[in-house]
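job 3f2a | input accepted
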Amino acid sequence: MAFTYRAGLALIALLLLLAGPAAAQQTWPVLAKMGVGGTWAAVCTEDVSDSNWFHTYYGDKSGVARRRADRGGDLPSLNSTIDSSQNLTPTTFLMRIRNDDAGWGANDQVAYDVIAEITPRGMRSLSSTRTSDGKQFIKDGKFTANGNPVRLFHRCK
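job 3f2a | predicted structure (157 res):
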């Protein structure tokens, strides 16, 4: 089963690379169709904080898909560009998210392949893999470092 899952991810990554600029132009429409647009948080009724980031997904004026992470307090927002996206099933999608902000420090310009799921309950990451070295941070909806489940994010606005 693990081989099939990894082989599937490798095939998806290869297809995204082969799609090139055409896929980049279609990134925001794919995400919008999946219902990703808007602001998401684990707890919408609580203030933005270092433990309750608000993620806003949007298409900018030039049509580029973006994500802004608001961390609350005096911390600056962190911006990312979503370089590609692809529907996998009616409720899951793959997106390549690249940190695109000097505020990320050493992680600026680092990209991750993220498989996310959207259901009526909310949105959550099923897997997250750093593209530069294949290090997996989330697998099967759990953090690989400690086995804790990834938080479910709800649409706030």
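job 3f2a | Strands lie at 38-41, 54-59, 65-70, 78-87, 92-99, 111-119, 122-130, 136-139, 142-143, 154-155.
job 3f2a | closed
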